[in-house]
TrEMBL record:
The lineage of its organism: Eukaryota, Metazoa, Chordata, Craniata, Vertebrata. Residues 314-324 have a biased composition (Basic and acidic residues). Its main location: membrane. GO terms for cellular component: plasma membrane. The chain crosses the membrane at residues 21-37, 49-70, 183-202. Signal peptide: none annotated. Pfam families: Ca_hom_mod. This is Calcium homeostasis modulator 1. It is a multi-pass membrane protein. The keyword Transport applies. Keywords: Ion channel, Ion transport, Membrane, Transmembrane, Transmembrane helix, Transport.
Amino acid sequence: MDKLRMMFQFLQSNQESFMNGICGIMALASAQMYSAFEFSCPCIPEYNYSYGIGLLIIPPIWFFLLGFVLNNNVSVLAEEWRRPTGKRTKDPSILRYMFCSITQRSLIAPAVWVSVTLMDGKSFLCAFSINLDVDKFGNYSLIKGMSETEKIKLLAKIPCKDLFEHQEVRVAASRYIKCISQACGWMFLLMMTFTAFLIRAIRPCFTQAAFLKTKYWSHYIDIERKIFDETCKEHAKSFAKVCIYQYFENISGEMRNLHHHSSKDDSDYEDDDKRRNEEDKLLGIRVQDDMNKALCNWHICKPALALRKEQKNGENNDKLHREGGGAVNGLANGHTHNVEKKEWAVYYSKV
């Protein structure tokens, strides 16, 4: 349990590793789901194509949307896109980077599903069995004298072992279509791998500074949201504690007045210390309306990303220069500032 807890804490602290783990689990789950899935082609001309292509397309779309749902950065992206500009401008390149990052991770599980489906070939066989030319397999007597409708109905039964009587034709047709399906599967894997290679190879060719900028600020937005949530949670906890402390202080004060006890014991002093510590965590916000206003202002007008440390240092330097008349080391016109003088008394002993 301790090892699992440490692993979970590590994944929580490292958002990128956590999402990569989620994508890997989804990819394994998609392959496992396909192996456990019972494929049942309807073997009806009107439904074969819809069933086969639907099995190839609909589950990947579901896995793609599930990847967006499980990614925590989706809410961060939506909030950043919809928030008012306020004092902080919005950079479209950051939004594009976050969206591309989410999309790349969400495409892993659908790609695994499509690859496994094409390699297996069952859905391909179900979808395109009616388009086969039986004459290629050398059995002309099978469709001799059949109308076009009867021929299509016969070909639609090829994916079903129990419904198709001529097993030799069925095996030959199944192998033929599965070979085409596997070829499409390998082409799909080659295309996906080549695309990933191009993305990784071409990206450093562009301006690396722009990429680092978008990556840095996307991480900043995610971390800022987490720290804001933690701060709100800490403030709410301290606010609740102070309210409860004050409530019990009022009750205890009434009871002491009733019983004529005015002395305080050590536990009361400890409670006072705890209350002061919790009051320090309130950061000066002690009223419900003030907290609501602070939360509303955070959403409407986020603070600008410019720290004030240098500004304060500049103000202090200007203040020193004004007080010192622009002299160096506090010297102005040949004399120092008015410094409080200390008097010393020296006593001599006659011994």
